[in-house]
Amino acid sequence: MNLKKIFSDFSDLIFPRCCEACDRSLVGNEATICTSCMISLPRIHANGLHQDVIRYKFVNVPEVALTHSFLLFTKKGKVQRLLHALKYKGNKDVGLLLGFMFGQEMIATGMLPEVGMIISVPLHAKKKKLRGYNQSDLLAEGFSNATGIPWSPTVLERIKHTATQTGKSKMERRDNVKGVFAVKERIDSKRVIIIDDVLTTGATLEECVQTLKMAGCESFTILTIALAEH
């Protein structure tokens, strides 16, 4: 009999592991997200209506060659629960797993672009210190593990601490993030992926594009784990 499995089953009995999406107990080899939720998470399809919404957010940024979001974010839904666990409950495994799943999906659907680097959207140092990590770094690392594309948490830096974007209009969001990023390292690739957690108006990601463009990047793929439904 497998002693490791016996110990694992006993541990689950005393300290039950729960799915971060539905709160049901995990069983067997399940980790972080149960099998049922892995299958049923609300994915955004490449040719669906939501994809048109995503494209439209960057219609005035011709350097953005491809945009895509993995899942649909709805209030009190499973995706919100997962991102809450990632950002506020310290569950880093959620970020690594969602990034990995997204990378696998991009490969399976033939949407993975030919790029040289993945760049995560940075947090300001104060916010990162408070949280202990940048959730976008974990998403980028998971995506990199699935695709083999190298990623960097240090190319782009957030040099200004800004108020939250929540509740602001797109114009207010643009003004709020103007000039907040700086490129801190040389970028060898002209074609890059920028990855973040949730796409709302796209103002923060657009500012990342403009900053990286001044550093010599020419073509951008914008990827987010979720699209916020309005």
From TrEMBL:
Domain Phosphoribosyltransferase, first and last residues per copy: 174-226
Lineage: Bacteria, Pseudomonadati, Bacteroidota, Cytophagia, Cytophagales
CDD domains in the record: PRTases_typeI (cd06223)
InterPro entries: ComF/GntX_DNA_util-trans, PRTase-like, PRTase_dom
Family to which the UniProt record says this protein belongs: Belongs to the ComF/GntX family.
PANTHER family for this protein: DNA UTILIZATION PROTEIN YHGH
Designated name of the protein: ComF family protein
Pfam family, one: Pribosyltran
SUPFAM superfamilies: PRTase-like (SSF53271)
